[in-house]
Amino acid sequence: MSDIIQLLPDHVANQIAAGEVVQRPASVVKELMENAIDANATEIKLIIKDAGKTLVQVIDNGKGMSVTDARLSFERHATSKIRAAEDLFQLNTKGFRGEALASIAAIAHVELKTKQDEDDLGTAIVIEGSEVKSQEVVVTPTGTSVAVKHLFFNIPARRNFLKSDTVELRHISDEFHRVALAHPNIAFSFYHNGSDLFNVPQENYRQRVVHIFGTKTNEKLVPVEEETEVLKISGFVGKPNFSKKTKSEQFFFVNQRFIKSPYLNHAIKSAFEGLLKDGYHPSYFLNLTVDPKSIDINIHPTKTEIKFDDEHTLYAILRSAVKHSLGQFNIAPVLDFEHQSSLNTPYEYKDKNASIPAIEVDRSFNPFSEDVNRKEKTTRQNTGFKSPPTASWESMYVGLESKGNNSQSDFSQVTFESESKDESIFNDSAIETRKTTFQLQHKYIVSTLKSGMLIIDQNRAHQRILYESFLKHITVKEATSQQLLFPLQLHFTPNETKIIDDLKSDLEHTGFAFSELNDKEIMITGVPVGVPESEVSIILEQLISDVENDVPDTNFSAADLLAKSMAKSLAIKNGQSLNSTEQEHMVNSLFACKEPNVSPTNRPTFITMAVDDIEKKFM
Predict the structure, then answer these.
(1) Confidence bin at 234 (pLDDT 50/70/90)
(2) E strands in 16-105
(3) How far apart are CA 340 and CA 67, in angstroms?
(4) DSSP one-letter string for 154-219
(5) Whole-number Å distance between alpha carbons of 464 and 596
(6) In Å, what is the CA distance from 606 to each residue of 418, 447, 453, 573, 586?
(7) Averaged over 484-498, what is the pLDDT?
(8) How large is the average pLDDT for residues 547-556?
(9) Ramachandran bin of 275, using left for φ above 0, alpha for ψ from -120 to 50, beta for the remaining angles
(10) CA distance 604 to 599
C-alpha cells in the first residue's frame, strides 16, 4: 500500500492556522492593536471600512521594525517575545505565538510600512495570500502601519459566514473597548468609513471608562482597591441601581489582558447578592495583577481564557474586596441591629453641651375661669412664641337656644346618604356559574371546549397578541403615540445609542417620538399607547440586549426583531392575576391572531385536552 500521509504546503497550513486566529474582522483588529501595544506605542489609530471587510488598518508610533524584522514577521512561528518554553510562564506581552501576521497574510492583502527612529527611511512590504508581491524602501513616519484589505478574498466560504456590517462593527467596537480599557496610558482613535467614532487621550482609568461608556457612567462607579501577596485588585464596579439586562459592561483584565472567567464572574455576582433584580447583571471594570508564573494564558487560541494556579483564593479575595467597597460607600445595607442612624449626633453639635430645659408651671391656671384678661404665660422662656388665648368653654353653646325653636324645620331638611346595593354579594353563585374561563396558578387560563378543555399560557399568548399588533403598526406606519407631559431623558453608552439610532425609524412607527438622539442622551417625547412611562427604559434595554446577542440574524428584519422585543417586554408576566373579563379578552384576542398556535419565539401558546384523555385518567 502506498504512503498516504504527506506534509501540508505552507500556504495551506497558514490558512488552517488562520481559521483559529482570524474568525472575523474583529480578530484582525485585536491582533494588530496588541502588536502596536507591544511596540511601546503611545498613540494608536484604528481605521475601518465596511465593518472591516474592505479595510482594517492600525497605525502606531511605536519603535518600528528593521528591514529583516519586517520581512521575518510574516513567517510562521517568528516572534520576538519568547526564546524558550520556560518563557511561556513569564509573559508580559500580548502576542507571542508568531502566527498572527502569517495567518492574516494568508487570507488577505496586507500592506506593511515600518520605520525605526534611528533610520532615515522605512520599509514597505505588500503580501497577497502569503505571496510577497513587493518590498521597497519608502519614506514613512516612525512606527508601523499595517493595512489589511479584502479579508477572506481567497476563502469565499469563510466570507459568506460573516454577519451584517452592523454586527461586525459591534464586534470590532467590543475589541477596541477591551484594548483601550486595559491601557489608559495610551491614546486611541477609531474611524469607520471616514467618521470619528472614538478619540480618547492618555488619561487615568476612571476617565477612560467614562470616555468610552458616556459621561453618565461617572456617577455609577464605585472604586475597588485591594492588595495582597497573591492578588492586586483595582478598578470599579457599578452601583446596583444601574445594573443592566446585558453583560456589555463586564470587564476583567489580568495583567492588562482582557479575559472571560465565569468563575470570577460568579464571585462578583455573589458580592451583589440581594442587591440586584432578577435578570439583571452587575457592571464591573476590574484590573487584576498576579504573578505571571501563577497563570497559563496559552490554553485558548484567542487568549481570552486563562488558567489560574489557585482559583479558590482569588475568588474569596475578589468577592470580599467588592463586598467591602459596596459597604464602604454605603451601597450595601448595614446589618447592625443595635445601631439606629437616626439617633446619631450631628457633627456641628458633637462638642456642644446640652442645655437644661426650663419649665414653668402656672399653678393658678383654671381652664374654666371667666377671667379673659388673665395674662398668658409661655411654656418656654427661650422662645418668643405665645400660646393663643383660650376662649371660655361656655362659648361653645352660644346660639343653641335660639336654634332650638327651629329644630323641627332643620331636621326636616336632613337627607341621609343611601347605601349602594352590591348585587354581587347576593348573586356570587350565579356569576360563578356563568364564567367560561378560569385562571390556574396565576399562570394559565383554562377554558372549556366542545371536545374538552383548553389551557393557555398567558405570557406566551399575550406575546403573540402584542407581536402581531406591533408588527402591523410598523408595517402600516399608522401607530398612535401618546405624548408625555415632560420629556423622558435616558442615557446609554455610545454603542447602545448607535443601536437605537439604527432602529429609530421602526421605533417611531410603533409610537415612539424622539426629540433628541445623540451619544450623550436620548430625549423621548412620546410612547406607544398603553406603554407606561416607567417601562420605556426596560423596553429599550431589552431591545439592545436582543440586538447585542445577534438576534437580528435569526429574524426576518429589524422590524420583526423590534416587534418581538417589545412584545417580550410588555407581555403580561406569569404570576399576574387576571379577572374574568381580562381572561375572556385574552382568549378572544389570541384566536383572532393569524398564528395563535405559537408565540413569537415559536413556542406553543396553548394545549388542548380531549374528554377521552380526561376519562382515561380515571380508569
Answers:
(1) very high
(2) 43-49, 55-60
(3) 73
(4) T-HHHHHT---HHHHHHHHHHHHHHHHHH-TTSEEEEEETTEEEEEE-S--HHHHHHHHH-GGGGG
(5) 7
(6) 47, 11, 11, 16, 12
(7) 82
(8) 57
(9) alpha
(10) 6
Please tell me the distance from the alpha carbon of residue 541 to that of residue 537, in angstroms, as a whole number: 6
Spell out where 52-183 has E strands.
55-60, 109-115, 122-128, 131-138, 143-149
CB 519 within 8 A of CB 497: yes
pTM over 0.70: no
Query: Which amino acid belongs to residue 336?
Result: D
CA distance 343 to 333: 17
Q: Higher confidence at residue 62 or residue 20?
A: 62
Whats the size of the chain, residue-wise? 619
Of these ranges, 71-85, 357-371, 596-610, the one predicted with the greatest mean pLDDT is 596-610
Say which CATH class 212-328 falls into.
Answer: alpha beta
What is the pLDDT, as a whole number, of residue 148? 93
Cα distance between residue 352 and residue 356, in whole Å:
13
Give the up-direction half-sphere exposure of residue 28: CA atoms within 13 A in the CB hemisphere: 32
The answer as to CATH 3.30.565.10 being correct for domain 10-200 is yes
Q: Which has the minimum average pLDDT: 136-140, 272-276, 517-521?
A: 517-521
Closest CA to 22 of 190, 168, 179, 182: 168
Nearest one of 546, 543, 538, 488 to 513, comparing CA atoms? 488
d(CA 314, CA 267): 9
Local structure of residue 283 (DSSP, 8 states): -
Strand order in the sheet with 284-289: 221-227, 232-238, 284-289, 250-254, 257-259
* Multiple choice CATH, 438-608, 3.30.1370.100, 1.20.140.10, 3.30.450.20, 3.40.720.10: 3.30.1370.100
Nine cell digits for residue 263: 468563575
Question: Which stretch, 212-226, 297-311, 517-531, has highest mean pLDDT?
Answer: 212-226
Q: How far is CA 587 from CA 462, 572, 582, 603, in A?
A: 10, 13, 9, 17
d(CA 506, CA 323): 42
Domain boundaries, the chain: 10-200, 212-328, 438-608
Q: Do the domains 212-328 and 10-200 match in fold?
A: no
Beta bridge partners of 454: 447, 608
The pLDDT tens digits for 558-607 are 677 778 878 888 888 888 888 888 888 888 888 888 888 888 888 899 98
Beta bridge partners of 528: 481
Cα distances (Å, whole numbers) of residue 117 to 20, 43, 122, 142, 305: 34, 15, 10, 6, 36
Contact 495, 175 (CB under 8 A): no
Q: Tens digits of per-residue pLDDT, 445-470?
A: 998 888 888 899 999 999 999 888 88
Any bridge partners for residue 236, and if so which?
223, 285
pLDDT band at 429 (very low <50, low <70, confident <90, very high): very low
Cα angle, residue 401 at apex, residues 400 and 406 outer, rounded to 5°: 85
As a whole number of angstroms, the distance between CA 44 and CA 144 comes to 10
For the chain, what is the mean pLDDT?
79
- Report d(CA 271, CA 253) in Å as an integer: 19
